[in-house]
Amino acid sequence: MRVAVRVSIIIPVLNEAAGIAEFLRSLAAVRTPSVELIVVDGGSADQTMTLSAPHVDRVVQSAKGRATQMNAGAAVACGSVLLFLHADTRLPPGALEAMDHAIAQGATWGRFDVTLEGRSPWLKLVATMMNWRSRLTGIATGDQAMFVTRAAFNAVGGFPPIALMEDITLSKLLKKRAYPACLRQRVVTSGRRWERHGVLRTILLMWRLRLAYFLGADPNQLAQQYAHVPHSKS
Fold first, then answer.
1. Please, what are the domains in the chain?
2. pLDDT score for 5
3. Is 86 exposed, middle or buried (0-12, 13-18, 19+ CB in 10 A)?
4. Mean pLDDT score of the chain
């Protein structure tokens, strides 16, 4: 008899062939009969799906878009708790136990603190700011490995089908129901996105995009601005 799935870890991917197998192997220790791994591919042009298949319980194809992909994963997941994990983010030891404890104490959703891994000394400051802001506002980002009970996720309708800020919007919806569990265990996330365009430039860009979003700007237009940032010359 199959043990009931307690946690479904949902991983949206797109063209991650270079590192997906190594990343998924790092999750082997948490892949038990009560924890399933689901990769959701948004139309990769490389071998991401083929390389993922041996290491997960299910590979799902969906339309491109992180919100769309994560909703597709949630739709087929068997777990009573959904953990959304980016393919460049590593869980710390004891992460699932800490999450289980928070839920046993009454939490319906939450996130982890984050460490940004990379060469720039600014990344430590960025991570500290992210963690403080999240703790003060009750708003989580995808880099912080958001988790939510299936009941709460379904109650708010899942991730909104928008191209950017889907994590912030989901946080706002969930926060109306309950404050998040802000776990101090740190996931480790690659700082490549920050270093690619320059850390300070990316900080200013994200502040500008978030301000525009809160003032009512179209997330699809903001996503286009985010995607077309010129590469750093440094």
1. 7-191 (3.90.550.10)
2. 72
3. buried
4. 87
Paired sense of beta strands 147-149 and 81-84, if any = antiparallel
Give the phi and the psi of residue 41 in degrees, each rounded to 5: -95, 135
Residue among 82, 90, 84 nearest 22 (CA) = 90
Q: How far apart are the C-alpha atoms of 202 and 158, rounded to whole Å?
A: 28
Residue 143: DSSP 8-state: G
Say which residue the tokens 């870890």 belong to. Answer: 9
165 pLDDT band, cuts 50/70/90, is confident
Residue 61, beta-bridge partner list: 41
Q: Tokens for 196? A: 């690619």
pLDDT at 226: 61
Structure-block tokens of residue 209: 């995009």
Strands 7-13 and 35-41: parallel
* Residue 23 CB burial class (10 angstroms; 0-12, 13-18, ≥19): buried
Residue 110, helix vs strand vs coil: strand
Predicted pLDDT at 2: 47
Helix and strand totals (H; E) in the chain:
10, 8
Q: Residues 42-59: what's their mean pLDDT?
A: 97
* pLDDT at residue 30, as a whole number: 93
**What is the crossing angle of helices 199-214 and 122-137, to 10°?**
20
Neighbours of 126 (CB within 10 A): 20
Residues in the chain: 234
